[in-house]
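Lecture 7 notes. Example A: sequence first, then its C-alpha cells.
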Amino acid sequence: MPEALVEVSRLKKYFPIKKGVTRRTVGHVKAVDGISFTIPQGKVMGLVGESGCGKSTVGRTILRLLPPTEGSVRFAGSEISTLNKRELNRLRTKMQIIFQDPYSSLNPRLPVAEIVGEAMLQHGIVKSKREMRDSVIDIIGKCGLFPEQAWRYPHQFSGGQRQRICIARALAVSPEFIVCDEAVSALDVSIQSQIINLLKDMQQEMNLTYLFISHDLSVVKFISDEVGVMYLGQLVEVGPKTRLFENPLHPYTEALLAAAPTFDPEVNRARKRVLLEGDIPSPSNPPPGCRFHTRCIYCEDVCRAIDPELSEVETGHFVKCHRLKKED
C-alpha cells in the first residue's frame, strides 16, 4: 500500500453557541466529533452523508481554514494542527481546496489570469507577471479553457467553465493534496461527467491525492478508492468502495444506499427498502450512546447507553455498530 499522506486522528470541531448581551457560551455545536482516517498517497477517499453531518467542516478543518478544537492532523508525517501562520503559509502550496459554489468562490473583480496566478506570485513560484501569464495559459489549457479566456471575468463563463477555473486555481501551485468540497454538485449531469473526468486525468498526471466530499453516491463510487460514511459528526463506516457499495455493514449505510435513485429496474426490484423514522438529532445535543440509535431498526439497550468504537470488522473495513460486534 502507498504511504499515508494525510492522517487524521480523533479530530473535533465545535462551534460555540452564544446568548445574551454578554455573548456568553451556553453550549456547542459538535460539527465534527472525534473522527479518524488516513488517505494514502495518490488515492481518493470519498466522504458521504446527509446534509449537515459535518463533511465540509472536516475538509476545512484539515486544511486549517477552520482551527480544530481537538485532535491531530498530519500531512506527510508532519503535524499541521499546531503550525503558526508563517509555517502554515509555506504548506499552502501542498494543500488546496475546490469549493462547492464555483461562482461565489471566485473574485468577480479579477480576470481569470489574476485569479489563477495570484497564488503563484504570492508563493514565489513565478518571478514576474510575464512568467505568471505563461503559466496561467498552460494550466487553464490543461483544464479545458482557451488562452484568450484568461482575460475574461467570472460572470462571462458558464457554471462548468467556472468550476474549471476553480480547479485550475487549485492546481496552479502544484499541490499534493486537494479537498474537493461538493465540486460537482452545482453542475448539470452532463457537465459533472466532464469535471469528474478532468479530476481523474489531473490525478493521474500529477499524482494527486483527493478527499472527495459529496452527497452523490454514484459520483463517489466512480472516483473513490475508499469511502467514509458520516452521521451527525462521526464516521460510522469506512471501507473499500466495492465492498461498501456491495455489502454495507452499518444500518445507516444500508439506508443511505437504499435512498439513492437508480434507473435500472433490475436493481430496483432487488433492492432492499430501508425506511428511517424520525429526524436527525441536533448536533448541539446529540443523544447518548450510539448517535444513530434513535432511527435504527436494530436498536438495543446497549446502543442507548454506550457509544461504540470504530473498529475493524473485515479486512480494510471499519464499522461503528454494537450489532456487528455481537454477531462476530
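Example B, a different protein, same format:
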Amino acid sequence: MITARYLTKIDQVSQLTEAECRRLQQVTDRFAFRSNAYYLSLIDWNDPADPIRRIAIPDPAELEEWGELDASGEADYTVLPGLEHKYPDTALLLLTDMCGSFCRFCFRKRLFLKGNQELVRDISKDIEYISQHPEISNVLLTGGDPLLLSTEKLAKVLYRLQEIEHVKIIRIGSKIPAFDPQRIAGDSDLLRLMGEISDGDKQLYVMTHFNHPRELNDLAASTLKMVLKTGTKVCSQTPLIRGVNDDPVVLRELFNKLSYLGIPPYYVFQCRPTKGNFTFTLPLEQAYSAFVNTLKGCSGLARRARFVMSHKSGKMEAVGLTENFIIFRYHRAANPDEEGRTVVCRRNPEAYWFDDYEEIIELDLAV
C-alpha cells in the first residue's frame, strides 16, 4: 500500500520533465503546490488531460488574470479571526491552512499565500463566541483540511464543541478520504473519536469532496465504510470543474458510486470566480445544463444534489432554465428575510456568476 509522502515543490514530482517543472514554477511562485505520493499515483501520466492531474498539477492557464481571492466575500462574515458566521444557525471555523493536496481550483487559495493571517491557533475566543450564540446549532470545521490535524488536536476541538448544549451538528469538511484515505483507515483513535462524538446527543458529519469517480477507488470506498460504521454521517460535494467532471457521464458515475455506498451527493457548486480559476470554470448556464443532464440515469437516491453558487448574499440554487430566463432560489440567505426568495434573470450565456446578470426580475414565491 502506498502511504502519503507529501511534496511541496513541483520539481519533486518525478513524472514531470525538467522542462515541465521550469514552466510550472512560475505558477507555483504565485499559487502554492502541495500533493502526496498516494494521490499522484492515481494519475495516468500518459494522458495530458487526465482529470486527477488537472486537480493536483499546476496549469500555466492559472496565471490568466480573472476573479478575486475572496470571491464569496467571506471577510464580510468573519466575526473573529478564524470564525465566520454567515447564516444564523451555522458557524464556520477555520482550523488549518494545510490540505492533503492543493486543488488547483481551490476557492480559498488565499489561505496558502504568504502573509495570510485569517487563521488563529488559539480558538478559545471562537469557542466562546459559539457558546454565547444559542442560535448556532451547526458548526463546520474547515480550512484547509481538519483531518490533517493530529487526532489529539482534533479531539480537543470536538470535545469543546461537544460541551456546548445548543450545538447539535458538527461537520468536518475534508477531502482526505480522496487525497489520503489511509490517514483515516490507519488511525483507530480517529475512528474511535468519530464514534464517540456521534454516540451522544450530537451528530458528526464528514462533508467530503469527491470530484471524479476515479478518486472513489476500493481503498477510498472501504475507508468511507469504516467512517459510516462509527455512526458518522457522510455526504459528498464538488464544484463542477472543466476537464474534470463537466461531462455528465462522468459526474453521473460519481453520483451513482456514492449512492451505492450510502453517501448522498450534496452540493454541486458553480466554480467560484477566484483568481486563477478561469481555466476550470464553465459559463453558469452551461454548467447548470451539464448538472441537469447528469441526473438522467441516476436513481432518486443518487440525484439529491443541488446546483448552487456560494454567492456573497447566500447559497443561490439554480432551479430552472427556459429559452429566455434562468431561475434562481435562495437556498440559504445571509439575510433571513431573503430565505427562499426566487429570482428570475434574463439568460446570459457568457455569465459565470450571479453578478454577471443585469436584468433581474424578482418573484416573491417564498412560502
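Note on Example B: Residues 248-260 form the longest helix (13 residues). The chain has one domain: 6-363.
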